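Thread: Newbie trying to understand structure tokens

Hi all, I'm a second-year student working on a class project, and my supervisor (Dr. K.) asked me to get a predicted structure for one chain before our next meeting. I've only ever worked with sequences, so writing a 3D structure as a token string is new to me. If someone could post the tokens and maybe explain what I'm looking at, I'd be very grateful. Here's the chain:
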Amino acid sequence: MSATTDPVPMASPARSPGLVLLVVSAAVFLSALDLLIVNIAFPTLSAEFDASTVALSWVLNGYTIVFAALLAPAGRMADRIGRRLVFLAGLATFLAGSLGCALAWDVGSLIAFRVVQATGGAMVTATSLALLLAAFPPARRSQAIAVWSMVGGVAAALGPPIGGLLVEISWRWIFLVNIPVGIAALVVGLRVLPESRDESETRRPDFLGTVLLVLAVGLLAYGLVAAPDRGWDSGVVLGAFAGAVVAGALVGLRAARAPRGTVPVLPLALFRVRSFTLASLAMAIFMAGFAGMLLGNVLWLTGGWGFTPTQAGFALIPGPALAALTAVPAGRLGARVGCGPVAATGMTLFALGTLVWFLQVGTEPAFATEFLPGQILTGIGVGLTLTNLSAAASSSLPPAALATGTATFGAARQIGATLGVAVLLAAVAGRGGELAGAERGWLLIVCLAVTAALVALAVGRGHHADLQVVPAPVSVPAPVPSPAPAPAAEIKELR
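---
Reply by user tm_fold:
Sure, no problem. This is what the structure looks like when written as tokens:
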């Protein structure tokens, strides 16, 4: 049982559940914020270090790849040695990484410290919901979960303006801002967080499989980002793609023949559940478009229209704010209409909003008439999509497989985001100037969203029951229903 899901930990409710909620929410907020806030600093970092987009892409991708790969192992380790211990260690690791990022002297050191940050962020995220469930009595858990599930949406809405304001002072402040909040959460957490563990869990994470997964995704992302400069037929690019294929194949073989006493990084049995597989695939494809859109719009506003980081940050608020506001109503709509159709509708709106930018945006700034309409459509589309794809994935699994399933689904989100940044940078790097590059990026995002919508339609209605929560604090909150056992899910003790 991973700490990323909703089975109740073996612990008595805490004496100060409100403080537990505050500590957990603060830590998860910082972790989610750092998935987003660096986007707004991308142009500034490029100028500061005189670095290429290939190098700088790893400031973003280094975080998301490691975060994705370590979610499940961190939850598994917490089950064995204690969720409070792993949470606090993760928060301390995240703060150490944040300080290192703020003190970075070149791109290489910044990437290295981002990996440290991601390690801590995965440990915090993997244990956060289980700690809340241990702290609150059953009658109050739904309220705590509702607050927890909103944290990602708040981080998404506040990330651009906070990042823009801080970058105007110094890009280093986007990392230093984590320190006082994190230290306060760490000090209070030492006093109030209850300890809990799964006494029946004796297996250990498959760290070799985790390394292979990081290698596979990293090589693929590198090949995509490097191709425009080096050439798609260059030895380095072809070698990266070949290495990604080999590493990916080894991940599959390792998962199929995991050593006794370990939990494979890729739970193959889950993918025998058709709706889970389709929902995960749709999410990965959609997140590629979504992450590409987040970075591409920053690059366009600051480069094409010449906005300052602060102006760009505030200009980007409407999209994530609308996504957060529509997430819960979208879940209720999915309960009536079905997860797949509502998610497909959201992706279609997202594609239409991006198409508006492709067709309308010109070289002269016209935010209200050319950019804002697309933001409204994409924001609502994200809210409809993330909520219902998450619900479709979780509700297709039996309770015994829910922990592993949600961790796997969360990893699919992050891997999709990683590849989205890579393909976006490859698309905008061509000839024709800023606007031509932005248009190629927007057209790519439209294609990804339409493809994801077609996959989502194949998911079908899903088993959507009463809304609760999705354990995936990325970008926007995503409520999830209580899972109904899937009749076709022949899964043995996937915990």
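A couple of things are worth pointing out once you decode it. The first strand starts at residue 204 and ends at 205. Strands lie at 204-205, 262-263. Feel free to ask follow-ups in this thread.
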